[in-house]
Specification:
2 domains; alpha+beta; two-stranded antiparallel sheet
Length: about 100
């Protein structure tokens, strides 16, 4: 019984080690194939503001910061969108004229 438990533990450790080595080799190979690819993950722009009032996009329903949103209109009547595509859909639907 003890041998079986020891064998299972060593198998788990060996599999974990092999997966780690394969992952490192795969990342290294992908950098050789595509050297422009950045190994960093996450947002690449460090100047995106993390604060601001959140407004709801009327097209897709996502919440977007007023600092980074695509706006239509001015002042208090401004409508905030997550992207130019959502703004264009909103304008094409005629909802801008009804509100």
């Amino acid at each position: 019984m003890f041998r079986l438990i020891l064998w299972l533990i060593s198998a788990v450790i060996a599999i974990t080690f092999i997966r780690s080595v394969i992952g490192v080799l795969a990342r290294g190979f992908s950098l050789l194939v595509n050297p422009q690819q950045s190994p960093q993950r996450g947002p690449t722009s460090a100047n995106v503001p993390l604060t601001g009032e959140l407004k709801r996009d009327p097209v897709c329903g996502t919440f977007v910061s007023t600092n980074t949103s695509v706006k239509h209109g001015a002042g208090a009547d401004a409508v905030h969108f997550c992207s130019a595509a959502c703004r264009d859909k909103f304008l094409a639907s005629g909802a801008a004229r009804r509100s």
